Amino acid sequence: MKPFCFPLESLLRLREAFRDSRRVELAQALAAQEHLRAELGAVAQQLAASRQQDRERRRSLPLTLVQLRQSESRRQSLAAEQTRITSAARAMALQVDACQLSLATAECEYQAVARLRASRLMEYQREVVREESKLSDEAAGRAFRRAA
What we know:
Layout: H1 9-60, H2 65-147
Helix pairs in contact: 1-2
């Protein structure tokens, strides 16, 4: 009997490659999201440290107007950075959701073709078993006729 041949094998490979590329995109988006979280944490720590330093300076020495403005300017720039990173993190969360949806869709499309291939393979294997059974029955029939 001829070997198993699935006519949609190239489609199966294409869907698999597409699914794998969606996995890579999701991994990249998750890494970027984690990077933004780390940045946000670092900025929050810097902002808290800046506030603490200002409090300590105010207790120990009277601050000049220039020092107060510099301190306030630094806190404002850190707060602006925190806002920018928060916005980027929200956008990245939306991108991660889109990547997850895209991956789920690609996985479903791959699984549909893979299930079709599996069912065709099972049909082929049943046919091989039937064919082998038929050949062995014919051989047994010939041997029985010779013996008789």
